């Protein structure tokens, strides 16, 4: 891949979503302690705090946090999508990489935000819909190829969710240093309904299991990857192809085994999930360090290897952190807020991915015939315009003649 010219430094965008309180939490007597204060600020109150206890007041663990954007139970799926992800699309179709990932404790709404439901579709489908719309709007001048793959990382192994019978897949680095999943199914489709069906089907293949905290808890990290190749319709002997890669990631929950009452197999999974999440946390810590010269160990897990570019390289990246508003989740919420707060310091360097394709001599005849057609089309257009102009000039002369008589 050729260097796409100037690279621009960009800060990670961090959004925070507080989901609505649920029946189970209310049943436990939980109160709401996480509030959105304004479009960017969130405050987490200490549930142990007694407002009348003056002595403890200055030891308060109440804390406010600023993010690029904050959402609470009033935010619709569309609002969350528009304010976090929609802005990435134009870049992706013209050769820039982008990543959106959902982070947070189990049961806090990551899958809801990314996949959503049939009635309240999430970021995956909204993004793909708009992506295809944007492609259609520019398809007079540009030609596109869109490829989509959907995979999960479960127990540090990669499975193809569109074709699970392929077994476990490996990560490979191609000659340009881009990490690829070897042998993954890539589908090209531009029908939104078809895609939603594929995703829903893929999601059924995803390893999920009820835990005490979430009855449809994702036990794996799910990754939807969309690759868009754009080239000009006007052919040339060498042609520039722009390649944009978009990752949309629904992580497994960061959780404590005690909270989910996991035992046996589930407990082992937790350790693996946490290996990837721990590695992600370590990378985020190292990357957010001021000065940025701390060693970043991407090789510690599959997730961080795959996300190398998204975190420290060439990608516009958005993190959507999720929390519950309930007093019973205070510790998880505080950890997540601290983590997300740290991620704000991460910077990536964004540049366009350009690929130069040289056509083989055997293809020249087809290029020449395409160019001839294009010349013919333009000639006809000129003739048509010339004729129109002549007509309007003639009518002007007639007017003048009329005036003279
Ligand atoms: N903003 C929201 N509005 C309405 N319902 C929500 C919202 N967020 C989450 N929920 C509901 O809460 C439950 C748990 O959400 P979800 O499965 O998305 O959590 P998760 O973060 O993916 O958890 P896990 O890490 O265990 O996979 C689901 O039933 C989901 O529909
Ligand atoms: Mg989930």
TrEMBL record:
Superkingdom per UniProt: Eukaryota
Coiled coil regions, renumbered to chain: 361-388
GO BP annotations listed: microtubule-based movement
Record's keyword annotation contains Transport: no
Localization, UniProt: Cell projection, Cilium; Cytoplasm, Cytoskeleton
Pfam families: Kinesin
GO terms, molecular function: ATP binding; microtubule binding; microtubule motor activity
Residue positions binding ATP: 104-111
Annotated keywords: ATP-binding, Cell projection, Cilium, Coiled coil, Cytoplasm, Cytoskeleton, Microtubule, Motor protein, Nucleotide-binding
Keyword tRNA-binding belongs to the record: no
GO cellular component, one term: cilium
InterPro entries membership: Kinesin-like_fam (IPR027640), Kinesin_motor_CS (IPR019821), Kinesin_motor_dom (IPR001752), Kinesin_motor_dom_sf (IPR036961), P-loop_NTPase (IPR027417)
Domain Kinesin motor: from-to ranges: 11-346
Residues in the signal sequence: none
Function: Plus end-directed microtubule-dependent motor protein that regulates the length of motile cilia by mediating depolymerization of microtubules at ciliary tips.
Family (UniProt): Belongs to the TRAFAC class myosin-kinesin ATPase superfamily. Kinesin family.
Protein name, per record: Kinesin-like protein
